[in-house]
Amino acid sequence: MDKNDIIELTITDMGVDGEGIGRYEGMAFFVKDALIGDRIRARIVKLKKNYGYARLEELIEPSPDRVEPRCPLHRRCGGCQIQALSYEKQLLYKQEKVRGHLIRIGGFSEAEIDAALLPIVGMDEPFRYRNKAQFPLGYDSSGNLVTGFFAARTHSIIPVEDCMLGVEVNRQVLAVVRRWMEKYYIPVYNEKDGSGLVRHVLIRYGFATDEIMVCLIVSGSDIPQKQDLIRQLCEIRGMTSISVNINRERTNVILGKETHCIWGTPYITDYIHLRDPQDFTVTQQAIAYHISPQSFYQVNSLQTEKLYSTALEYAQLTGKECVWDLYCGIGTISLFLAQKAKQVYGVEVVPQAIEDARQNALRNGIANAEFFVGKAEEVLPEFYAGSFGDEAMRHPDVIVVDPPRKGCDEACLSTMLAMRPERIVYVSCDPATLARDLRVLADGGYRIEKVRAFDQFAQTVHVEVVVLLSKGDIQSKKIRVDFSLEDMEVF
Ligand code: SAH
Predict the structure, then answer these.
(1) Which terminus of the chain has fewer CB atoms gathered within 10 Å of its CB, N or C?
(2) pLDDT per residue over 70-84, tens digit each?
(3) Is 153 left (phi over 0), alpha (psi -120 to 50) or beta?
(4) 491 — pLDDT class (breaks 50, 70, 90)
């Protein structure tokens, strides 16, 4: 067996990145764009000792779960790894991924997980759900101005007029921006030498309000022919905020630090409704958020309502509880919790997000949410060991965490265990680090009560999970506390 050999494979499994896995002469081969049930011809591109990588050359017999992808560019773009898989099977794949990680990485028994695992919550319409899109600009081989996406793992732009995950208005906005640039010979930023001007177009859309935000990211201090651009953008219904963000850095980071609003308000408003946790029907209760170009905001508005309503249900609040919301961002979950708790404390490392969280609390008349800037793994131990907090803060009823993909820091988990809340609600965007952290919490005496996955990112391999843990019989379990705090309690 050699590189470039053509082999025939039957795909029997799918890896964590959505790649198909088939066996040939006892070796596992990973094949991008191949799906479970496909019979394929593939070219070996890399050989390791026990496994290899192959490129899909020909579909001999397509899997019965294949569907015609809505986006003709989905293979080149790489953003929607599993668009060719039926939506029903996408959900099954994600459910299995969560279950498998909890068992294999977390070391939980099948029985434990199956007793807690609820069916994944999918979307009725799994396209056009994203409320935010960032399009880079470039030139095609004939020198025409194009907007689109970077091809997977490269910086060459695939012209995309209309991404199926984004809202339809994106296309109108991009057409206006392209016309304006062509009319006035405004150059695209060139990342190789730093010349040119326009780098990206950022578009946000408020699903509950139909408000639209357009932010042009440029490498200069301003844009020429501003009024003409504004006039044309304002013809699009719902236009609410137009701004220019300045990014002169030679970096992959999209947004620079400085943003000037050139028309309308510097933010759009959106609402997150509380939904009935049983059937997810919308209730009257809602929280209003101002979202600026830099704000972190969940990209799938509809699924976020289901996710947060479930997190709130799991917190089981009656109005008497003290709750910590770690990794709180702009306070989205915190403000949801605050409506049902006595007091909520949010912790977030980005100062601007905490500023937004405080403003959002004020705007919604919420007085029982307080926010702290800092790392969860530093702020929480400080309150636990130090003299700032009161007893309720040191021993809250509930702790909610919603960390980034890398999961919680060990010091954060140890302090959570020391604080001994009745319940822990873990919201995760990476089932692998979730499984690792749940093991630490389980070793510390917490029991997994419920696990529910949410499809926040349909057509991609990503999955969001909410877990409820409750304080078990702590005495009988070993506690792993890997760092010392003077004031650490001994159980
Ligand atoms: N709960 C929010 C945000 C979740 S995203 C929401 O649902 O909207 C994760 C957040 O954790 C980001 O806002 C990120 O800035 C923040 N973060 C990352 N590392 C952190 C750390 N060590 N301590 C506290 N916050 C952190």
Answers:
(1) N
(2) 998 888 888 899 999
(3) left
(4) very low
Q: Is 429 a catalytic residue?
A: yes
d(CA 137, CA 160): 10
Q: pLDDT at residue 490 above 50?
A: no
Closest CA relative to residue 397, chosen from 424, 378, 376, 415: 424
The distance of Cα 358 from the centroid of its chain, to the nearest Å, equals 22
Distance of alpha carbon 436 from alpha carbon 480, whole angstroms: 13
Euclidean distance between CA atoms 282 and 194, whole angstroms: 48
Nearest CA to 471 among 451, 443, 438, 446?
446
Residue 186 CA to ligand 1 centre (angstroms): 37
Q: Two tokens at 178?
A: 């392209």
Q: Is the CB of 354 under 6 A from ligand 1?
A: no
Residue that is written with structure tokens 């959002």 in the block = 360
Two structure tokens written together for 142:
């004939």
In degrees to the nearest 10, what's the CA dihedral of 312, 461, 326, 343? -10
Please identify which of the residues 328, 408, 412, 429 carries the catalytic annotation: 429
| Of 384, 396, 391, the residue nearest 343 (C-alpha) | 396
Q: Counting runs of H as helices and runs of E as strands, what totals does the chain give?
A: 12, 21
